[in-house]
Specification:
heterodimer; A: 327 residues; Rossmann fold; 7-stranded mixed sheet; 5-stranded mixed sheet; B: 366 residues; alpha/beta; 2 domains; 5-stranded parallel sheet; 38% helix; globular
């Protein structure tokens, strides 16, 4: 067994599911001959042929719409957005066609939309998106965002097997990160949708986070232990829809303080909803203000100094924790 | 397609039923019994019924809001349609949605949404599945002149062409997108010319002549069924009434409307059938009686049905877990599949006509 990257874990999940179930197929721009812009589907065309690994025109409505049409026929399409930013070009197919299909017609729509997300790679305003809030806000779409290779594989398998549209966000900064390499179980496994995981147990404060920010939070937590003698609990949400309220509530009830860290713009983001539900349901348990660390409310900038200033990171998290810990 | 006397009478019956259903729906709207907007298609009956008559078992329609005629031709239930208009709890959408937004995959009908043109990429996915499963079935996807201006239309036609998908695109050009006449929408004479851009055949036909529609669409269906890729048929028709019943359509020049009213597909076909001695006075009376009985039954049924239970408002957002059948394959309606029944109700999908209220034998060749 060899340790695999986050990207290889995604690739493995798709390959194994396509071998297991002939209803599963992949479509998207450059996914076939080229193997995908990030090579996630390298070798797929040779193994599965052009009918199940479909190079599409540059047409996100056709990609997502066709995935919906196949899904309501009982197939299990995986539609790749070359960069998740381009999901806006097929936005309506997801938020009006796919998300409401079962609710209004009783017809299940088992499909996955996936694509490279997030910043930190100098992608600029159109190749760095964290689009989760739009879909988090839309009833009928599940949203997952893995932070480890194990979860990348297990969540994708669960997403493919789910009977609903699932938006699977893969952080491109994590794709080939050596420190995320890990050995994965040789047997089939899934990570259930809607289950968060406590990455680090602690007593003094809860950090709720997901995606690439999990790593930054864990780094910050280590520094806080070393330098401040603070014992921080880090909860990786993994699924944003459905949201694992139980794990969130248990952690916050235990630590009595909560910091929410996300890479998306601050206002109206997932963190806003997390803040609201904690304020509504756990007010009596809180010993300090619910605090958020996120990107400012500006578009994603290109130049490295601007990008660094824009993205949340371990230093910004440290500062926020120290302020909150003083309560 | 060879049309026997019985076929011709079926076609006439379906066209009459379509118009009568819409006339009644309009009355219900004027009486305040339809809670939302009403969109009808007086003048489209030759196009919608004629086009759908060319299909057979296993084929799909991907209809739009003016395609009641397609639904009824493919066996759609007048009761379900009326329950939908009246927002009943037992409507196909359980009161979640209105209008002709009805579908049932086991009977080859994909439910539309209000964003016109958006069903066309979905039609590609249905056709892609047929292609992958090596079936001999096809998809008929329709849209209006307005929707041909959307990116969805162009993406769908292009993708369908590249993938050689089995789709007949039926464009119902009725002269107006809401109030916007065609000359403000596009700078070509025939919307069938749009097909050239995608390397597929396209023809235009008099959409108010049901026999011409059937003849033309049949050729398209044959081409598509032979695996030669998609085909576009533009049916030139006219929307006699407004976009919705809230629209008086006073932007339509009086003489234009009068000109088209003279080409009304129903009297035209009636005249032909009378000339051929197929439609006699007694058969006509019989058909009228049946049409009235079906419409009355549908309205009565809908009015006797309950409104949705408000306590269910948060239900049905996500489909349950479980195996999903590939629609149209043997055993797909086996109850172990979560898409064999409408899992929201545990009942079969409520879109097909009950045989006891559907009066003519073999209607729609189902």
């Amino acid at each position: 067994m060899t340790a695999v990257t986050y990207l290889e874990a995604i690739s493995q999940a798709m390959r194994e599911e396509m071998r297991r179930d002939e209803a599963v197929f992949l479509l998207g721009e450059d996914v076939g001959t080229y193997g995908g812009a990030f090579k996630v589907s390298a070798g797929f065309l040779d193994e599965f042929g052009p009918e199940r690994v479909i190079d599409t025109p540059m047409a996100e409505n056709a990609i997502i719409g066709s995935a919906i049409g196949a899904a309501i026929m009982g197939m299990r399409p995986i539609a790749e957005m070359q960069f998740i930013d381009f999901i806006t070009c097929g936005f309506d197919q997801l938020v009006n066609m796919a998300s409401k299909m079962y609710w209004r017609s009783g017809i299940p729509t088992p499909m996955v939309i996936r694509g490279p997300s997030g910043g930190g790679t100098h992608g600029g305003p159109f190749h760095s998106a964290s689009p989760e809030a739009w879909f988090f806000h839309t009833p009928g779409i599940k949203v997952v965002y893995p932070s480890t290779a194990y979860d990348a594989k297990g969540l994708l398998k669960a997403a493919i097997r789910d009977n609903n549209p699932v938006l699977y966000l893969e952080h491109k900064l994590l794709y080939r990160l050596p420190e995320l390499r890990e050995e994965l179980p040789s047997q089939d496994y899934t990570v259930p949708l809607g289950k968060a995981i406590v990455r680090r147990q602690g007593e003094d404060m809860t950090i709720l986070t997901y995606g690439a920010m999990v790593r930054e939070c864990l780094k910050a937590a280590q520094t806080l232990e070393d330098e401040d003698d603070l014992d921080i609990e880090v909860v990786d949400l993994r699924s944003l829809v459905p949201l694992d309220r139980e794990t969130i509530y248990n952690s916050v009830k235990h630590t009595n303080k909560v910091l929410i860290v996300y890479e998306d713009n601050l206002s109206g983001g997932v963190g806003a909803e997390l803040s609201a539900i904690i304020a509504e349901d756990l007010f009596d348990y809180l010993d300090g203000p619910i605090t958020r660390v996120a990107a400012p409310d500006v578009p994603f900038p290109y130049a490295p100094p601007l990008e660094a200033a824009y993205l949340p990171n371990a230093d910004k998290i440290l500062a926020a924790v120290r302020k909150l810990a003083a309560y | 397609m060879q049309l026997e006397r019985e076929n011709l009478l079926q076609i006439y019956y379906l066209m009459r039923l379509t118009r009568a259903m819409e006339d009644r729906t309009r009355n219900l709207f004027l009486q305040g019994r339809v809670v939302g907007g009403v969109y009808t298609a007086q003048g489209h009956e030759a196009t919608t019924v004629g086009a759908a008559m060319t299909l057979r078992d296993g084929d799909f329609i991907v209809p739009q809001h003016r395609d009641l005629g397609m639904h009824l031709t493919r066996g759609g239930s007048p009761r379900a349609v009326m329950c939908q208009w009246l927002a009943r709890g037992n409507s196909p959408t359980l009161g979640r949605d209105g209008q002709m937004h009805i579908g049932d995959m086991h009977h080859g009908i994909v439910p539309m949404i209000s964003m016109l043109g958006e069903s066309l990429p979905v039609a590609c996915g249905v056709a892609l599945t047929m292609k992958m499963r090596k079936r001999n079935t096809i998809v008929m996807a329709s849209c209006g002149d307005g929707a041909t201006n959307t990116g969805q239309f162009h993406e769908a036609l292009n993708f369908a062409s590249v993938q050689k998908l089995p789709i007949v695109f039926v464009v119902e050009n009725n002269g107006y997108a809401y109030s916007t006449p065609t000359y403000k929408q596009f700078n070509i004479e025939n919307l069938s010319d749009r097909a050239k851009a995608y390397g597929i055949p396209g023809v235009s036909v008099d959409g108010n002549d049901v026999l011409k529609v059937i003849e033309t669409v049949s050729k398209a269906v044959k081409h598509v069924r032979e695996g030669k890729g998609p085909y576009l048929v533009e049916c030139k028709t006219f929307r006699v009434r407004g976009h919705s019943e809230a629209d008086k359509a006073d932007y339509v020049p009086q003489e234009l409307r009068e000109e088209w009213l003279k080409k009304d597909p129903l009297p035209r076909f009636e005249h032909y059938l009378e000339e051929q001695d197929i439609l006699t006075a007694s058969i006509k009376a019989e058909i009228e009686e049946k049409v009235k009985a079906v419409v009355d039954d549908a309205v009565r049924y809908a009015e006797q049905s309950s409104e949705p239970d408000p306590s269910t408002v948060a239900d049905y957002v996500f489909a349950p877990d479980g195996p999903v059948a590939i629609i149209g394959e043997p055993g797909a309606q086996d109850s172990r599949y979560v898409n064999s029944l409408d899992t929201r109700t545990g009942q079969p999908f409520n879109t097909m006509a009950e045989s006891d209220v559907f009066p003519l034998e073999g209607v729609g060749q189902r």
